[in-house]
Specification:
Layout lengths: L4 H15 L2 H13 L1 H4 L7 H8 L3 H12 L4 E3 L5 E3 L15 H7 L2 H8 L2 H6 L4 H5 L3 H6 L2 H25 L5 E7 L5 H9 L2 E8 L1 H4 L13 E5 L9 E7 L7 H14 E11 L10 H12 L7 H10 L2 E8 L5 E7 L3
Parallel strand pairs: 3-4, 3-6, 4-5, 6-7
Antiparallel strand pairs: 1-2, 7-9, 8-9
Helix pairs in contact: 2-5, 2-6, 4-5, 6-11, 7-15, 11-12
């Protein structure tokens, strides 16, 4: 690499801008927490009007909105008022697809602090969550109901728009038992049961995760059961197992334990559908490459390639059948029992 002052300057400016990127995330969390988008739902407001509605100092609010306006989320009008843009509309809590809960989860201290000290991960080769919070990620959530609700509401917000295309892409039987492992509030299972009126669904998760589940729809009466439990110990019997955004939370050995329990419990001809991101090769951007670093900092898991999923299945007595795209960031990684 030869000396090139112009290229060096361009690189420096680019990298400084990249290093400042966390401030956009911080500003986004601030306005999501304050409910700024909801206050702007009926139209533009002055800073005084907006600050009064959300309980914010107008001068500080201006500085936050000014930065987010450069991202196209808000727009400063010529008369000094701000409006919410089309790009920012999912910040509203009352929208059909709201990102607010997801933003509050993704920028929560349990993810933010470890990411901010990622150099510790490079030194340890593992998560630094325990070093910062004196317990594991899921232990922390289990002992704090408010934090747990932030997590589960955020995951539900991220999942809500994905559930319909994912359920449509799943190859599901007309009848039988579908078990949603680690299914949280049950949004995916509800979508599956609405599409297959002869299926019975089991929502399986820890008790605190099942609180407030969504399976009470009249169309699913009598076709579901919510069972608290630990998928590292055993799982309910079923014909199809769904694991959406579950495997990426855990290391390889933990994943093999979960999959082995599925293999033991599933009916003859049963299948496991892992609904996770599949990292593509090469240098192209993919959401999973960013989420993978979040997982490295706060949890024990990782995002995986198709080959890495295949090795996990093989270790659990399963065989990878196919990887099906869903039109979302997630794919369906399907496995069946391996021949004995």
């Amino acid at each position: 690499m030869t000396d090139d002052p112009g290229a060096d300057r361009e690189s420096l400016l680019f990298l400084v801008d990249e290093a400042l990127g966390y401030l956009s995330s911080a500003a986004l969390r601030a306005v999501a927490s304050a409910g700024v988008a909801d206050a702007l739902a009926d139209g533009p407001l002055t800073l005084a009007e907006l600050g009064k509605q959300v309980g914010a100092d107008p001068r500080a609010l201006y500085r936050v909105l000014r930065l987010l306006a450069t991202r196209g989320i808000f727009e400063e009008l010529g008369d000094g008022r701000f409006r919410l843009t089309e790009r920012g509309r999912a910040l509203r809590s009352d929208g059909p697809m709201s990102a607010r809960a997801a933003i509050l989860m993704l920028t929560h201290r349990t993810l933010w602090r470890p990411a901010g000290e990622m150099e510790g991960c490079l030194e340890k080769g593992a998560s630094i969550f325990n070093d910062l919070f004196d317990m594991s990620f899921f232990e922390y959530f289990a002992q704090d109901a408010q934090v747990a609700m932030t997590f589960h509401s955020g995951m539900a917000a991220m999942s809500d728009w994905e559930n319909a295309p994912i359920a449509a892409a799943c190859d599901l039987p007309e009848s039988g038992v579908v078990v949603d492992l680690g299914g949280g509030l049950g949004g995916l299972l509800l979508e599956v049961l609405l599409r297959r009126r002869s299926l019975f669904g089991v929502l399986f998760d820890q008790a605190h995760a099942l609180a407030g589940h969504r399976l009470g729809a009249r169309e699913t009466d009598g076709r579901w059961e919510a069972i608290p439990g630990d998928f590292f110990t055993e799982v309910p019997p079923g014909d199809v197992y769904l694991l959406k955004r579950v495997m990426h939370d855990w290391d390889d050995d933990q994943c093999v334990t979960i999959l082995t329990n599925c293999r033991r419990a599933m009916a003859d001809g049963g299948r496991v559908l892992v609904l996770d991101a599949v990292i593509p090769p090469g240098n192209e951007p993919h959401q999973a490459k960013a989420v993978d670093l979040m997982l490295m900092a706060s949890l024990t898991g990782r995002e995986r390639t198709a080959d890495e999923f295949a090795r996990l299945f093989e270790a659990a007595g399963l065989r990878l059948v196919r990887v099906v795209p869903t039109g979302t960031a997630l794919s369906i990684v399907e496995a069946v029992a391996a021949a004995t």
